[in-house]
């Protein structure tokens, strides 16, 4: 029967990885893969993580299952990190945490939960959005729609977004990026979040907030503004959180599905259904990543160390954004690419066309997604002059 199966194109980013490895250009630059990199181009293990793992290795007594919802200790630290230590939602027992295999796993749990418990509801994603959003929600059998997010001049199209949200059928689900929008880097201001909240209330829409990069934008609490605003002012919110990025534990696949309900009783009803969804997907989540996060956030010394390291990572990225624009000034391109300094997170929607991206790859060994999305963490003070010169060449 396998004779009927056709080969399909591989993932575009994975293809970039292979092409980059084979490139013999000594000045080649990888701006494609979405992981944090330090000044040496490495994705390091954070010091706090190393110390936490050492403690876990010393004290661990079992490798047994942790249950469909994951380890309670993990939920106990993730919920206040996302919703705030003084959250009225948490005090009212309105929120439920389910540990998941990464933020992607949390999204799939959310998708299957929506498909089974809210049948017939459509789901709306920004245009553009993280490409895997399309695959996850479509695979769950949910009808997918788009709302505008970036205009033809590579700027945040908030007016277009808001107008589109006002036309979405009541009860549908709207996917919002909490911060560090992937792939564009354009985030909503606090005032814009207030306006989105008003529309969600008016249209009785259900927000699904993808919170993959907490701490990479302006700060742990600052980046959570939109999430907390919606949770405090709406009866029902779905949040998908990831610790894979801000703890640098990508391969441990450490995420969380957070559901906010109107009251504690409804939360328990929802929680019981999520347990079934998790059981049918993967039974139990991996334990190690969650244990690392719990160990760090339950310990004042490790928590302070982690926050300091996260701040260093965030500051490095934001500095590189400004330095990138500055490097383009001699070529008269600083105003054209000024948006890069305004964006937040690891990714930047540069405005480069697919043809320009192709030229950067073929002529200069600079690799990024053809949409023009670049991983800013791939910049360095060593390669910025080369990048600026190459971008100037393809802008002729």
Automatic annotation (TrEMBL):
<dbReference type="InterPro" id="IPR004839">
    <property type="entry name" value="Aminotransferase_I/II_large"/>
</dbReference>
<comment type="subunit">
    <text>Homodimer.</text>
</comment>
<comment type="similarity">
    <text>Belongs to the class-I pyridoxal-phosphate-dependent aminotransferase family.</text>
</comment>
<dbReference type="InterPro" id="IPR000796">
    <property type="entry name" value="Asp_trans"/>
</dbReference>
<protein>
    <submittedName>
        <fullName>Aromatic amino acid transaminase</fullName>
    </submittedName>
</protein>
<dbReference type="InterPro" id="IPR015422">
    <property type="entry name" value="PyrdxlP-dep_Trfase_small"/>
</dbReference>
<keyword id="KW-0663">Pyridoxal phosphate</keyword>
<dbReference type="InterPro" id="IPR015424">
    <property type="entry name" value="PyrdxlP-dep_Trfase"/>
</dbReference>
<dbReference type="Pfam" id="PF00155">
    <property type="entry name" value="Aminotran_1_2"/>
</dbReference>
<dbReference type="InterPro" id="IPR015421">
    <property type="entry name" value="PyrdxlP-dep_Trfase_major"/>
</dbReference>
<feature type="domain" description="Aminotransferase class I/classII large">
    <location>
        <begin position="27"/>
        <end position="391"/>
    </location>
</feature>
<keyword id="KW-0808">Transferase</keyword>
<keyword id="KW-0032">Aminotransferase</keyword>
């Amino acid at each position: 029967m396998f004779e009927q199966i056709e080969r399909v194109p591989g993932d575009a980013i994975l293809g970039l990885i292979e092409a980059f490895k084979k490139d013999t250009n000594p000045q080649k630059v990888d701006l494609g893969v979405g992981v944090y990199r330090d000044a040496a181009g490495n994705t390091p293990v954070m010091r706090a993580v190393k110390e936490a793992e050492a403690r876990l290795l010393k004290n661990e007594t079992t490798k047994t299952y942790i249950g469909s919802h994951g380890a309670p200790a993990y939920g106990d630290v993730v919920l206040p990190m996302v919703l705030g230590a003084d959250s009225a939602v948490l005090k009212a027992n309105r929120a439920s945490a389910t540990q998941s295999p990464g933020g992607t796993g949390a999204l799939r749990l959310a998708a299957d939960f929506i498909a089974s418990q809210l049948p017939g509801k459509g789901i709306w994603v920004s245009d553009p959005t993280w490409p895997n959003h399309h695959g996850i929600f479509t695979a769950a059998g949910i009808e997918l729609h788009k709302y505008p997010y970036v205009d033809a001049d590579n700027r945040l199209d908030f007016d277009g977004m808001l107008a589109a949200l006002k036309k979405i059928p009541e009860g549908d689900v709207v996917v919002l990026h909490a911060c560090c929008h992937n792939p564009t880097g354009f985030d909503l201001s606090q005032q814009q979040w207030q306006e989105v909240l008003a529309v969600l209330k008016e249209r009785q829409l259900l927000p699904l907030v993808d919170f993959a990069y907490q701490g990479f934008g302006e700060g742990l609490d600052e980046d959570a503004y939109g999430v907390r605003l919606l949770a405090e002012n709406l009866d029902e919110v779905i949040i998908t959180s990831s610790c894979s990025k801000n703890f640098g534990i990508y391969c441990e696949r450490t995420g969380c599905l957070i559901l906010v309900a109107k009251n504690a009783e409804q939360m328990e009803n929802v929680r019981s259904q999520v347990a079934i969804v998790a059981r049918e997907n993967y039974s139990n989540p991996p334990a190690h990543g969650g244990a690392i996060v719990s160990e760090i956030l339950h310990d004042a010394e490790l928590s302070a160390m982690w926050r300091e390291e996260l701040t260093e990572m965030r500051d490095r990225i934001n500095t590189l954004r400004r330095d990138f624009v500055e490097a383009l000034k001699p070529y008269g391109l600083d105003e054209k690419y000024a948006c890069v300094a305004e964006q937040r997170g690891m990714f930047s929607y540069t405005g480069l066309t697919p043809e320009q991206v192709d030229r950067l790859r073929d002529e200069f060994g600079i690799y990024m997604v053809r949409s023009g999305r670049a991983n800013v963490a791939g910049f360095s003070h060593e390669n910025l002059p080369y990048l600026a010169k190459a971008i100037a060449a393809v802008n002729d």
